Amino acid sequence: VGAVGGHFEVLTMTENVSKNGFLCACNVDIHIGSIIEVSLTNSDVPVGSAKVMRAEWQDTQLPRYGCRFTDKPGTWVLQ
Fold this sequence. Notes:
By secondary structure, the chain is mostly beta strands. It is built from no helices and 5 strands. A hairpin with a 6-residue loop joins strand 3 (35-39) and strand 4. It starts with 13 loop residues before the first strand and ends in an 8-residue tail after the last strand.
């Protein structure tokens, strides 16, 4: 759910990954604390859910969001 309350789907690339989270940039305004659904482009199975923990560069076209998994039943790039 974006900051305006609507659902959205966006394709983005991670800039940093860890076993429990990632940093990505996207052109959608997302509130800190929002829960997002995460999928990998090479799989139809969702990785899980993540909480937006922090935001950077919010006044630019591509703000960056640091996210931490809250639920990870699928396969992530680091196990």
